[in-house]
Write a structure and sequence with these properties.
Blueprint (H helix, E strand, L loop, with lengths): L6 H15 L4 E2 H8 L3 H13 L3 E3 L4 E4 L2 H22 L4 H4 L2 E8 L2 E8 L14 E3 L4 H7 L4 H7 L16 H14 L2 E4 L6 E9 L5 E10 H26 L8
Amino acid sequence: MSTTTVPALEKTFQILDLITASPLPLTAAHIAKQLGLARSSTHNILQSLLNKHVIYKDADSRFHLGSYLLYWAGKYEQQQGVIQLFKDLIMQYPILLQHTVTLSKLDLGEVVFLACHEAPAPLGFTFRSGVRVPAVFSSTGKAILSTLSMTTIDSLYEGNFPKPLTHNSVGSFDELSTELTAIHSSRISLDNGQLRDGMYCLGTYIRNASGNAVAGMAVSFLQAEYESKCDQVSTVLIELAEQMEQRLGFMPNQSV
């Protein structure tokens, strides 16, 4: 018995798994029979998958995996490539290894943590892979958002600015715009206690061969050490980001 709260989605995965595992392509009737599904719902799901090119139907009305899966696979491979680059290249920067350094990606209006190098001293905030925070308050989020137009950013939030997390959190699209403008010249973003009181983070973006910001990196400090280390760490963080971009095929003459 299915435990999913979206039965149609569960059926879709069952159909895709069956098509993938079958040594021969299957007709809609065979799929419905093997999975014990109603023919009408099987037909509707198959039609939706056909429309998105997730599957395709041959001349004998048998179903195969489609080309759209390559798009998903490519995005997954790209993401994993960024993570591996981060893990490999950060080891060349002893200054950064003294601190907590995170790698994130933008997902709609939030950033999702992909990887983290933990500092020897705890910060009191958990940077586990998969943890999500509002992009407008995080340094990685603001770094990535700085590569987008304010119109695009407004649409991410449907015009509703997220509720502040601390008394330092930026409070409006106008305030955010001012911060993003400063990032354009320095390439460095700042979370000055906006995500968590007493924690400061410096961030920057990482671009791919298409010139798109596919990830962001941030170095986190306790407030007391931020002022003495921010300049040196910012310089090294940009060096690491540029090295990663070079590996990803970004050309320096491309604009953000």
